[in-house]
Write a structure and sequence with these properties.
Elements: H1 9-20, E1 31-36, E2 41-46, E3 51-57, E4 62-67, E5 73-78, E6 88-93, E7 98-104, E8 111-117, E9 120-125, E10 130-134, E11 141-146, E12 152-157, E13 163-168, E14 173-179, E15 185-191, E16 196-201, E17 207-212, E18 217-222, E19 227-233, E20 239-244, E21 250-255, E22 260-265, E23 270-276, E24 281-286, E25 292-297, E26 302-307, E27 312-318, E28 323-329
Antiparallel strand pairs: 1-2, 1-28, 2-3, 4-5, 5-6, 6-7, 8-9, 9-10, 10-11, 12-13, 13-14, 14-15, 16-17, 17-18, 18-19, 20-21, 21-22, 22-23, 24-25, 25-26, 26-27
């Protein structure tokens, strides 16, 4: 990840009254959530107008965000790097546009990746080489599992929570974690390229594509065999995130070391287009209907909106400093 400028906790707390004044309008549904990382703030965006309707304090060094399936709450990891002393996940009431008390993770440090599955929040604890899970209340850690891998950074969990994947940047691996019939967890370390960071699981669940941040490649892993089936050269300077389109036809890779998103044809496993979106593209989110992708361009303090039919930038959202993690919130 690019180096982050952190706001000290005391300063962040001092921002709270200002942030509270920036609730400009009711939270829409759906809403695009954008972490303004360098400001320690969550911005709530109306995707119909591309306007920010409110901002809420997001805790120190917020990196990734996920919304609860009912669209009521956002959970935000407070990272702090590979030697972090941070041990919280921040929580935001999206309807009230209000920060709730943070979840204390105890001895778990450096939470970064986060996902929601089977009604519970899963997260990585990079310092501990582990993943954790919050209980149904979203307030207590109820389960922890070690990966034994260095810099366990991102996590994706299957909908039934029987299979978990992590990318481990400093070990050059993707961990496949599976629950057997007895409820025991079995781990397989799949060796990929250098510095795997952003990754995604294909919509059919058969493949994992991992963007290797340090060698400009994408590793395609077959889930059934737990082996790399192919390595694709995408010539990125520093891949940051990778996302499948909902139909599984396109794969987008952000290049934080440049100004581009690489668009891959998933079936052909080849580069379809190199699209300039803005300086320092990091987080990627694709709308559930597959119509648009949103790419946080951290150095431009903006989010680029990409039309996935024309594969052109169709708009921009002006944000605060250092936008990165993105999520989609929709009330049920």
């Amino acid at each position: 990840m690019p180096k982050t400028t952190w706001i000290p906790v005391a300063v962040w707390l001092g921002l709270s009254p200002l942030v509270m004044t920036l609730a400009l309008a009711q939270t829409p549904s759906p809403a695009l959530l954008v972490l303004e990382k360098s400001d320690s703030v969550l911005a709530i965006v109306d995707p119909a107008t591309l306007k920010i309707v409110g901002r809420v304090a997001a805790g120190p060094d917020p990196h990734e965000v996920v919304a609860s399936p009912d669209g009521k709450f956002a959970y935000i990891t407070n990272y702090g790097g590979g030697r972090s002393a941070f041990h919280t996940i921040s929580v935001v009431d999206l309807s009230a546009q209000k920060a709730l008390p943070a979840v204390d993770l105890g001895v778990l440090r450096g939470a970064h990746g986060i996902d929601f599955a089977d009604g519970k929040v899963y997260f990585t604890a990079e310092v501990n080489k582990a993943i954790g899970r919050l209980d149904a209340s979203g307030r207590q850690v109820e389960w922890v599992l070690g990966t034994g891998q260095n810099a366990t950074h991102m996590v994706i969990v299957s909908k039934d929570a029987r299979r978990i994947f992590t990318s481990n940047i400093a070990s050059d691996t993707v961990t496949v974690i599976e629950s057997d019939a007895s409820g025991n967890w079995n781990e397989t370390q799949v060796h990929v390229g250098k510095g795997p960071e952003g990754f995604d699981v294909s919509p059919d669940g058969k493949e994992v594509w991992a963007a290797n941040s340090q060698d400009g490649s994408v590793s395609v892993i077959e889930v059934a065999s737990k082996k790399v089936a192919q390595t694709i050269d995408v010539s990125t300077k520093h891949s940051n995130r990778l996302k499948f389109s909902p139909d599984g036809k396109l794969v987008l890779v952000s290049d934080a070391g440049a100004s581009d998103v690489i668009v891959l044809d998933a079936a052909a496993r080849s580069v379809k287009k190199k699209l300039t979106v803005g300086r320092g593209p990091e987080g990627i989110l694709i709308a559930p209907d597959g119509s648009h992708a949103y790419v946080a361009t951290a150095q431009d303090n903006s989010v680029a909106v990409v039309d996935l039919k024309s594969l052109e930038v169709s708009g921009h959202i002006d944000t605060g400093n250092g936008p990165d993690g993105l999520a989609w919130a929709q009330r049920k």
